[in-house]
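Entry 12.
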Amino acid sequence: MLHPLSSRLVLAAVALACLHCGDDGGGGEGGDGGAGSTGTTPTTTSTGDGGSGPSVTVTSGQGGGDGGQGGEDVGAACGDGTRDAGEACDDGNADSGDGCTGTCDAIEGGWACPTPGEACVYTIVCGDGTIGGAETCDDQNDDAGDGCSATCEVEDGWECPVMGAACVAKLCGDGIVAGQEECEDGDAPPESDDGCTDTCQREDGYKCDVPGAPCEPTVCGDGVVEGSEQCDDENFDLGDGCGIDCKGEPLCEGIGACTTVCGDGIKLPGGDEECEDGNTEAGDGCSPECTVEPGYECEDVVVVPDPFQLPIILRDFPESHPDFEDYNGARLGIVEPELDDEGKPVYALVGGDPNNTKVTNADTFAQWYRSVEDVNQTFVQQLTFDQLPGGEYRFASSDFFPLDGLGYGDEGNIGGNDGQPHNFHFTSEVRYWFEYAGTERFDFSGDDDVWVFVNNQLVLDIGGVHGVLDGGFDLDAAFATTYGLEIGSIYEIVVFQAERHTTRSNYRLTLSNFDNAISVCESFCGNGIKTPDEACDDGVNDGSYGSCTPECGFGPRCGDGEVQEEFEACDDGVNLSPYDGCAPGCQLGSTCGDGVVDSAFGEECDDEDNDGGYGECDEGCVLGPYCGDGQRDDDEGEECDDGNQTNGDGCNVDCQSSGPN
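Predicted 3D structure (tokens):
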């Protein structure tokens, strides 16, 4: 049995303990009193249902004591994962910039917070075709290098005028290769005829590898494929698949029709090529794969070249070569009736010929049409043909000295019509590919040796050292039967010539009806496909706002620097300021005071007024003093402020003291 004094001490302890009930939880009911029993040991039992305060039971043989008091009700907390009254969101933390403000009073711009206690979801998706948040473009992908970066920001040198559409080059002449531009050579303003045109397209024969730097001429024959070159086999030869201009050639192997390659300027009827414009450049209507590019229509036409030129390979020999200057007189049968595997004529008089006084031997002859170091020197030139009234093309020269001042020089040889020193010792080679129609005619007049091959077979033989001789032939049906030609197929005609003796040099070549069709591609304004020669083509082209003009220029639009009040809120000509400026689409960007918390731009809050005050938003869209900022505001009734949103740590979420812990 307890002593009366001891009983009073226990009751005092009980009362004292009850003063600290509920430090951690909200208010609740007290625990039930303990059942009556005998005994003398005091014990502590559990709290009531809603609190954490302890209750004390005295086992004294009398009825049970009163239940303990529940914990205090300290209210809801931002960051507890429960969206309480007055909260716009609660993502389980008190941090700003993650979609839910640090005070849980607003959902930040560009976010959605559908489930309390879970992370908010950023709704701005780069690549969805819609501009939002800090994006300045969206071309429906997240690829860099196409004008709109992987984070949907406009890249240097580009502009993205249509939301969701492909970006385009901002300006030809800005030093940045963009869009359909092929070059930027630093011209301001851009000019043509220097490798890069005034529309920033690369010109033939140039390489423009460094944006903003001048273009440089390419060197055909250096073994490096550059610029508009299609190939480079390091030689000055024709008929090997790569021309002396580093363009592709038809392949003609043995007797039979040649095969063509994309870019060689010859389109086979019924072949796989959709078009053939003589190059492998993109953006001109016929692609590098010889398919018609979007926005173009290509038609095969017989083009009258102006001027019509053919490359000619010239090999200069010294007078000391045994086959030059020593022989005289015409001689048929010097070459075999077919070309060899390299497309060169073959010496036919192997073993000697008592009547042959025109060529030393097969070895010396093999040097005539091949480049041989220390034996000859090779030069590449162009024959320019004139068109005759009947439509034929002719090159004619009665003083044919193309290597005067070159190679081994005149070596003291005087002649020609002018009686002056000239270079008399050289060979020449000309090749031409044509689509056989059965109406062609070939004529040649000149000196000295001339051999003409068609379909790899000898057709005209004017061999030997002689004065001017004429020869020619029609490529008619009988010719086709003899030499195996078929209408519509591609064949090669080759002219081998040699100038071996003073004192005259004549060369006249006439081609009649050797016509080839080539693809001429044109863009069509109004078909809805923008091509490099168009500024704009939306298929409407009525000149209305946001549309294109009938001439495929720009109509009034966002980005022209003029505010079209019916459609635009602003237009500074750039329109890339999603905050405090003119945003894409010519609409005003977000700003402090619009009532939307734009955490991406540093806003902590935005109540439109932003005039400060306790628990409100201050100037500049930063939070004013508030419970939880770590500064105790006595004037606002705060008893404490420990800078967190945790109850039971001495300072509750309402900045009221929770007493000793």
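Annotation: The longest strand covers residues 377-387. Residues 308-520 form one domain.
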